[in-house]
Amino acid sequence: MNIIHKCTTTRKTAVVTGATSGIGRDIARQLRKRGYHLIITGRNQKELERLVCEFGEKYTTAASADIADKRECLALYRLACEYNTEVLINNAGFGMYGEFAETSLAREMDMLDVNVRAVHILMKLFLRRFAHRNYGYILNVASSAGYVPGPFMSGYYASKSYVVSLTSSVYEEVKRRGLNVHISMLCPGPVKTDFNSRAGVRGKIDGISSELAAAEAVDGMFAGRFEIIPTAGVKAICYLGGAMPKKISAFANYFVQKLNKSRK
Length: 264
Fold this sequence. Notes:
This protein is α/β, with parallel strands linked by helices. It is built from nine helices and ten strands.
């Protein structure tokens, strides 16, 4: 992990992974408006440097990190322990498009390390710290994809299913212990970011803005909402798709995802 900028502060602190673009960047903006000192991470060092200027050097700590590496996750946690950290935003993640038999195994393993292993590691470490203090917020960025199978993006959909299941289970454990630690997950549908281009999705599905998704996420997290689904349409997809037999939802989603291969 390469620390780009580090500040000294006793201000309340929020950690945001994958903060250099899309939902992560806009969540960081929302938290900065609320007075948080930010610890932002990502792989794009130039964008991290720009964000330090945008948010202010007195209020931003930035580190270039590849959280696919367990050691980078541990280094990020140790950095957060130097501050009055009370919020974790587990946002970093990416997807891949293509038939399972044909996609790159190495790239898929990197995706699972970011989407699953890093989320798991960071959630466990920060939860232990927050439980000891009996205060904190954890928001995992999942997806409507976590409720249904997704042909042509099978690994990505499976990774988000893991996040949905993990977050739901931990939420119940924390609730039963009576801890003042709030567990939430953001489950948006399509969002206007660079996700599709990075995933290799050729089609274009209109979605909500990342600014709206971020505002809903932060408002919902601080309101103590567990499941944050920004629109009624996506909420219906999550609930109905989740209740539908997996074979049927996989059949339906096959044709939806196939459009992304053929549309220009």
